[in-house]
Every structure is written in C-alpha cells, then in structure tokens.
Amino acid sequence: MASVRSHENITLLSYSEVTEVSGYAGNFRVKVRKKPRYVDSTKCTGCGTCQEKCPIQVTSEFEAGLARRKAIYIPFPQAVPNVPVIDPAHCTYLLKGKCGLCKRVCEAAAIDYTQKEETVEIECGNIILATGFEPFDPTPMVEFGYGRYPNVITAIQFERMSNASGPTGGKILLRDGRAPQSVAILHCVGSRDERYHKYCSRVCCMYSLKFAHLLHEKLPGCEVFQLYIDMRCAGSGYEEFYERVQREGVNFIRGRAAEVTDIAEGESERGKLIVIVEDTLIRRRRRLPVDMVVLSTALAPQADAGEVARIFSISRKADGFFLEKHPKLDPIATSTDGIFIAGCCQSPKDIPDTVAQAAAAAARVLALISRGIVETESATACIDEKRCGGCKTCLGMCPYKAITFDEPAKVARINEALCKGCGTCAAACPSGAITSRHFTAEEIMSEIEGVLL
To answer: What does pTM read for this prediction?
Structure first.
C-alpha cells in the first residue's frame, strides 16, 4: 500500500466512498465522497500523543471486539496514510463541543475540527471493483453459544489473537488469561447451510487447519479437535498440509456440531464447554469437553453490496455476490462494459485465486486502453422519435441506465454504448416506439412461422 501511495500514476483516496457513477466504458464519471478525518495529514507526524491522551475508549472493530480503541485512532496498523482519524460518533468535542484534549496536546497543530465532507469527481475509462467480503456473524446460531459463552470465538477473533501485533501479543488465551488445554474448531459455521448460506466458503477448511497448526506450535500438548463435514483441500500443496496436520496429532471428527453447552454431566466436564456432535465415522454421539471453541465462519457478501451494485449498474447472484458476465468464459467482466470485478466480491476464494483474478482484471483494462476503442453491442434498442409520446416509462425500466429524456424535444433517447439489447424497454413502451435491432416483431413472427411450417 505504501508503494501504491508513492506511485506517480496512482491517486489513493482512502477513507472515502463512491456515491455516484455515470457514463459508459471509456467515459465514466465517478463522484467520490471524502470523509473528514479532522486531522491534517500534511501536518501530522504520527507521534501518537493524541491517541495516548484521548480519554474515550470504544470497542475496536479491527481487533474483532477483543480490544479497545480511542475516539481518535489509526484504523489498522498498516493504514495508508498512517494518520489518525477522529470518530465523530464517539468524540466528545464533535458531539458536545467539550474536551478537545487531542488538539491541545498536538504539537504539530494537526487537529482540525472544522473539516467538512468533500466531493471529488473523477473521469476514468474503466472500473475494477474489489470490495471483498465480510465474516458471517454467528450470533443467530444460538446452538453454538456465541456471545453467551466468552470462550466461544470466531475465526477472525482467533486470527487477531494469534497475530503478534494483536491484542494478546500472539498468545492464545482464554478470557480469564489462562492458556487453553483443549480447543474445538467447528467447520462450516453459516456456510453449506440451508438456513444461512448454501455455498461453500472455500477457505474455511484450510484456515481451520492453519489454526490447528498454530495451536500445536504455540501451545505444545494442547488437544485440538476438528469437526468437519468433509475436507476440501483443493489447491497447490493444500492436501500435503492436511496430511502434515494429521501427523501433528490433531483429532478429526467427521460430523457437524449440534450444540455447544456448559451443562456438565460428569466431573470431567465441569468448568468446560461441551461440544455435542455425532461422529459419522464411528456412528456414535460424542460429548467433547474443551476450554475454547473456534467457529470457522462463512465468507458473506458485504452488507452494502446491494447499494454498490445499484451505483455501478451491475447485477448480483442469488447468494448476494456480484454477478460475472459468464461463470466460466468471462469471470472477470460484468454485464456493464468497462466494469470488472476481482476477489471475494464475486465469490468466496483464497489468496492465490484472488491475486490471479486481480491480475486478469488489470490485464483486461490495459487491453482496452491499448486498443483505444470500445465495441458496442449490435442488437441494441432504437427509438422512433416520431412515435415517442414522452411518457418516460422506459427510463425507469432500463436496468443499464441507457435511456435519457430530451426535455426540449420531449422524446427519449438511447445511448448505444450502454444498451445491451435486453428488450425490456421495447416490451414496456405503450406507444410501440422502441424496437430491438435483430429482434423486431416482424423478425420474431417470421421465426415462429418458420418453426410452425
């Protein structure tokens, strides 16, 4: 990210969001809302005094709720620019006009409470969407006790806990500060589940195996259980890693966990979390007393994926991810020319596949730039302006925003660079002023007659 920021041909707009997209391939106009940081990035030296002195503490989103952050904070350790942001939802000064301690202690005079939102407009030829995913929230799955039992954690929480820069300095700890002696890792929490997400999240098996390896590395002697439906280790070196973890002594139990409870049925279960599971390999119901339960949660679409799809005029699949032009022959492009997708916004995928798709999207953009021209669809709609009544029915029907209305002439007009010839406008036009090239009423009737004869 630092290399990207310093590149002479790249403008990095962090802490910003797209609000509007208009135009077409080769001629997009994008409006970006830059949120106020309330910190002047040209003056800030990154000394951290403001964060140290701020009295307000709230739950840290980056640490997945395992730690606290201040009202003025750096979103994550490798943030670019490495400049703090003031959270307007929790800052006492921005809410009530009181405190202002961060401004008083800032020797560089970088704190600026008067900053406002700024909207910039960018002209571009192509767009690549790489909005990623968000982890599934297992709270609705009450059978696992997430949020009720403190030592039931998600995969992201375990990831932060095991990270050297995380809230525990890389130590795997229970909420009371002890190291766990036994851990159960539950696969497919929220994925491959008719109630939540039917699809496989692809990465869960491998990161669950990684967790087991880390547990044996950091806590020698810790007993680890992997509760799985079936292991999906399709990738270069993945099956070999699976075999390596097996040799390390991990207990693999084929069966989906039914419940996590703290109700003990014997002395050996007292003070433990009990994972109830049917082991399908030995055809027995088992109770596993453990100190910690890790939920390998699904990869879900971003919460605002629907709004993003609307802004960029692209479609989504039934599972909520962005729809590619073709699942096999063109998994990079979308139905809107000039807009490409990369990474987990299209479907759950691991890092190698994400990198490959991102490189492919960049190559497609470079190919279009080098050609210098954009090919349009041949089967587009056209409007007979003499018959157009100016009712504007077609404007709301077009999924590609290809139709505009000429107020002086009181007629609708179609931008052929945006039109995909879907025929929705032609079917909806009450005056019959719109026809689809190569799909006129006469041509369709002739085809029907040919079939019947």
So the answer is: 0.87
Q: Which residues of the chain have pLDDT under 50?
A: none
Contact (Cβ atoms closer than 8 angstroms) between residue 17 and residue 35? yes
- Report in angstroms the alpha-carbon separations of 248 from 43, 186, 214, 293: 52, 18, 11, 19
**DSSP letters for 117-143:** -EEEEEEES-EEE---EEE---TT-GG
Alpha-carbon torsion 367, 371, 372, 373, what sign? negative
Is CATH 3.40.50.20 the classification given to domain 134-299? Answer: no
The DSSP H or E segment spanning 406 is strand 403-406
The beta strands (E) that lie in 53-167 are given as 57-59, 68-70, 72-73, 85-86, 118-124, 127-129, 133-135, 152-154
d(CA 62, CA 79): 12
Ramachandran angles phi, psi of 148, nearest 5°:
-100, -40
152-154 vs 133-135, strand pairing mode: unpaired
Domain ranges of the chain: 2-126, 134-299, 381-452
